[in-house]
């Protein structure tokens, strides 16, 4: 399995590379009224209005100001494409199923992580993007996006 590894503070996370479309430098984010707390706002990427997700809030990490060094990962989450705001991209790693420990054996009840990869220099938490938005958050986001003016 190929994983894109990214950082938030001193933590390393990963997404399955098959769900990642592209990585961009950070850019100005337009606020989205009435969006769930997990949504920082929206960005127009090549004509598509995409919600920017605050991964820090989901993992209960301290907030930080947007920096030009930050990155935005365009990824497919369940039924939508989203941007994940992260600190940096470390690269791509290739691992086998044997390299991955199921998350519930290491961190029970942590629904946003599907597994843990142990590397020589530490661990990488594999992010469960399909479970990132709770059902009520997804509905609220749909309503907020539906209220955008047509251009």
UniProtKB/TrEMBL annotation:
InterPro entries the record matches: CheW (IPR039315), CheW-like_dom_sf (IPR036061), CheW-lke_dom (IPR002545)
Gene Ontology CC terms: cytosol
Protein name, UniProt field: Chemotaxis protein CheW
Domain of life: Bacteria
GO biological process: chemotaxis; signal transduction
Residues of the CheW-like domain: 1-138
């Amino acid at each position: 399995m190929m994983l894109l590894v990214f950082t938030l503070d001193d933590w390393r996370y990963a997404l399955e590379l098959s769900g990642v479309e592209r990585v961009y430098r950070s850019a100005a984010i337009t606020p989205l009224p009435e969006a769930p707390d997990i949504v920082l706002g929206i960005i127009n990427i090549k004509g598509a209005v995409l919600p920017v997700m605050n991964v820090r809030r989901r993992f209960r990490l301290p907030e930080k100001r947007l920096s030009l060094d930050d990155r935005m990962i365009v990824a497919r989450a369940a039924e939508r494409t989203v941007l994940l705001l992260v600190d940096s991209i470390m690269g791509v790693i290739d691992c086998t199923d044997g390299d991955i420990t199921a998350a519930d054996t290491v961190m029970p009840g942590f629904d946003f992580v599907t597994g843990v990869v142990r590397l020589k220099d530490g661990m990488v938490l594999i992010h469960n993007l399909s479970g990132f938005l709770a059902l009520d958050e997804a509905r609220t986001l749909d309503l907020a996006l539906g209220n955008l003016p047509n251009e």
